[in-house]
Design brief:
The protein is of the alpha+beta class. 22% of the residues lie in helices and 43% in strands. The N and C termini lie far apart (63 Å).
């Protein structure tokens, strides 16, 4: 009888441990899925910029996949002429990575600690992003403090 009780306790303990591990795995999987909501193609509210957000090396990044400010010249023509690094001034705007280093913060449901590059002015800014209740992506470029910055809003296109 004592042997049966001890076996029941071991089975219960093992089952409880496995259940806890399973729930933890599901929670981690849910957080990963939530974090990856930002991935995909997005177009700016002004309809002049499209970006592709993707994950690489546990960081979220974005690159330009289309823009309309071409003055009649093909997108492939435009270069990063205002980049502070002279070596990068000949790189193409189309396909250029403009956002890097974002990491998902599950506590705040936001992507934080990134860097965004503004090719029009050749400047790098701190960056964060959120997805609003209506599904809009809000990318904030700021200088040290979030209240010193600018937000660009995007809607999902794919």
């Amino acid at each position: 009888m004592l042997l049966v009780k001890n076996m029941n306790k071991k089975i219960f303990s093992t089952t409880a441990l496995l259940l806890c591990c399973l729930l933890q795995c599901l929670n981690v999987e849910a957080q990963v899925a939530k974090a990856e909501r930002v991935c995909g193609s997005w177009e700016s509210e002004q309809h002049n910029l499209r970006i592709l957000v993707y994950m690489q090396h546990k960081q979220f990044r974005a690159k330009i996949i289309w823009f309309s400010d071409t003055d009649g010249k093909p997108m492939d023509y435009w270069r990063d002429t205002r980049n502070p690094d002279i070596k990068l001034r000949s790189r193409k705007i189309l396909g250029m990575e403009i956002l890097s280093g974002l990491r998902y913060n599950a506590r705040t449901n936001s992507w934080e600690d990134g860097i965004v590059y503004d090719s029009r002015h050749g400047r790098y800014w701190n960056a964060s992003a959120t997805i609003g209740k209506k599904g809009m992506l809000h990318v904030r470029g700021y200088w040290h403090f979030k209240w010193i910055g600018r937000t660009i809003n995007f809607y999902r296109i794919r």
